[in-house]
UniProtKB/TrEMBL annotation:
GO MF: ferrochelatase activity; heme binding; metal ion binding; peroxidase activity
Record's cofactor remark: Binds 1 heme b (iron(II)-protoporphyrin IX) group non-covalently per subunit.
Organism listed in the record: Nonomuraea wenchangensis
InterPro entries linked to this entry: Dimeric_a/b-barrel (IPR011008), Dyp_perox_C (IPR048328), Dyp_perox_N (IPR048327), Dyp_peroxidase (IPR006314), EfeB/EfeN (IPR006313), TAT_signal (IPR006311)
Every Dyp-type peroxidase N-terminal domain range: 60-215
Protein name: Deferrochelatase
Gene Ontology BP terms: iron import into cell
Keywords from the named record: Heme, Iron, Lyase, Metal-binding, Oxidoreductase, Peroxidase, Signal
SUPFAM superfamilies per UniProt: Dimeric alpha+beta barrel (SSF54909)
Keyword Chaperone tagged: no
One Pfam family named in its UniProt record: Dyp_perox_C
Amino acid sequence: MSDPSGNGRRMSRRSLFGLGAAGAAVAGAGAVGARSLLDEPPVAHAASTSAPYPFYGEHQAGIVTPAQDRLHFVAFDVTTGDRAELIDLLQEWTAAAARLTQGKEAGSFGAVGGDPAAAPDDTGEALGLPASGLTLTVGFGPSLFDKRFGLADRRPAALADLPKFPGEQLVPEISGGDLCVQACAHDPQVAVHAIRNLARIGFGKVSVRWSQLGFGRTSSTSRAQATPRNLMGFKDGTNNLKLEDAALLREQLWADAGDGAAWMTGGTYLVTRKIRMTIETWDRTSLTEQEQIFGRDKGEGAPLGAKREFDPLDFAAKGPDGQPHIASNAHIRLAHPSSHGNAHLLRRGYNFVDGSDGLGRLDAGLFFIAYQRDPRKQFVPVQMRLAREDPLNEYIKHVSSGLFACPPGVRDASDYWGRTLFEP
Ligand SMILES: C=CC1=C(C)c2cc3[nH]c(cc4nc(cc5[nH]c(cc1n2)c(C)c5CCC(=O)O)C(CCC(=O)O)=C4C)c(C)c3C=C
Ligand SMILES: [Fe+2]
């Protein structure tokens, strides 16, 4: 990967990393030792959790990239009304993101290398930390296409506002946003550092509307990864769109020139839902009921009536009592592509615990993230069906919603996030 700034740095985060890497290797070995006492294999990672992913490419990173363990997601309101300032910001963000994702500081002087009389161009808390697989993915919300920036006629039809879903209790202050950035990394400090520096760079042009930290990815987006578990204790992400499904990704994930908004070619659409779980109630529910709600067993993650996690789903199979193994309203049956004209989602969610709610309950759940080619044909019908019929609703509440058009990837150092939108 080339250095997008074209220059060396006086002090690179990675040059400070030597000791940290050794420490992490030792800690990693310890973790494997402890894990081997258990029956279940550890969740697989890429060759190294400290290595960088390329920033430049046809598509943005952080979508089919094997899901990292940590998330910091942020939605911004644009506070400037000036289109040129917005473009400047996207250019500055792109340059910073190209550096940050390669394990460098946000600016070329860094936290301690600039004029001591000036504020540093990096905040410093990631000094000594490696790239940690950081990816930064940007999206544009429907509100960006209002009158302010002359973009009203550039709004893709697929970025239609989501309908109201039965039972949702959305909190406006933690929903929506003109822009979003998804930061995923194997180290939470690296993800938070990236978002903090983008917010710092955006001072006076954007303000943070809401943000969400996540841990323990709840989906695998590559077959090389083991399936992680959500906070209800179930494997989540078994039947997901994955990096290796090239034909399905073309058909179901990436926007195409013929889709109506040519500037989105190579991009995709993102839906976020913060879903609070009443896990104290869930924890008092019998194992049998829990498994019937999802349609999979809790230990292995196998479809009910089958043995192994990746055994094919057989919705027609019946038990000795003549009832289908997978109930007619099981979550996996309601959400399955066959129930929605073959509509798939690439799920990339994270667990969250935002402390407790003051009533003796954890404020915890799933920060659901799904990428797709057209939410009107994918997320909306699936969620409408789940909202109406899923017995899981007794234990969950949707409290925040976001919808964003994620533009294509940045080609090289002369390109920037959203160029195709602003420069037809
Ligand atoms: C609108 C889309 C979906 C929402 C919202 C959603 C919420 C949600 N899901 C789980 C747990 C599991 N989901 C599983 C499968 C699954 N879920 C969706 C969609 C939504 N889920 C899809 C498309 C699928 C795949 C269906 C299939 O093709 O088989 C599973 C099973 C394992 C898996 O395949 O991932 C679990 C477990 C929770 C806890 C939740 C809200 C809090
Ligand atoms: Fe689900």
